[in-house]
What we know:
Blueprint: E1 2-3, H1 4-18, E2 22-26, H2 42-46, E3 51-53, H3 58-70, E4 74-81, H4 89-96, H5 99-102, E5 112-117, H6 132-136, E6 142-145, H7 149-160, E7 166-171, E8 178-179, E9 194-197, E10 202-206, H8 210-223, E11 228-232, E12 235-237, H9 241-251, E13 254-261, H10 266-277, E14 287-291, H11 300-306, H12 310-321
Parallel strand pairs: 2-3, 2-4, 4-5, 5-7, 6-7, 10-11, 10-13, 13-14
Antiparallel strand pairs: 1-8, 6-12, 9-11
Amino acid sequence: MITYRDAMREALREALIRDNRVFLMGEDIGAYGGCFGVSRGLLEEFGPDRIRDTPLSESAFVGAGIGAALGGLRPIVEIMTVNFSLLALDQILNNAATLRNMSGGQVSVPLVIRMATGAGRQVGAQHSHSLEAFYAHIPGLRVVSAATVADARGMLWSALQNLDPVLIFEPSALYNTEADLPDDAAATDIDRAAIRRAGTDVTVVAYGGTLRVAEAAADALAAEGIDAEIIDLRTLRPLDETTVLASVARTHRLVVVDEGWRSVSIAAEIAARAAENGYYELDAPVQRVCTAEVPIPYAKQLEEAALPQAADVVAAVHRVVR
Length: 322
């Protein structure tokens, strides 16, 4: 058994060993071992040239990562939590995402940016955002999220092979989760969604932290005789709509679970694509289960009430199946 946190650390170790162009930079990632303990021990193993603590300036160290990528290195930049990425938004939006196109392909920005995302830890509204939909809106970026321990281990190396910048969203509520991981676990295919559970009655699409919510709902639905197919998107830009639409063609019903806010969300995009390209396969309106449109509350019971829960998914499935 290995935790999501330790799987991420092993992915970082593997990348540092396999490619001497790879280095890690961010706030408190060295001596402290990272805010979430992901980089613990890497400074002692690889030294300060490859595990670089940075000043508290996201714009500065993301910009330095962009420069290093332009210079032929393979930097991995850690932003402590997704809300802090907004302090580097100019660098991400106006530089990392645009330089390859603006140079006519003469330069590339093979930069990986990792950041913790999501709620469920009672850290208040400022540190509980799920901003994946915002970044997935930006052309020039690839946006991925690991929902499983295996993908936490296998997604980083795939990201490092991209010439475009890749943003990896790590649901902070998953860091302590555990799963079996074989020693020969392969790199994750970040071009395609994964069918985590086959089913015939309804397609439930999730990603990141909502996958376990969808799986818990599927277990409850199975006890009622409803067979749910669970799809883990894995990559949010570009979306693998082919896998989603093929599933809808089998089940004829679609529920989307999204920890982002409902308006202008990943869930809204999937619902729109299903309407555009799979309308005649649908036997019921698409249902979306999203976070309440409020700043995430601090109080535990209010935080839980704001976030998608398995019971909410079950209720949404009942609306399309019955």
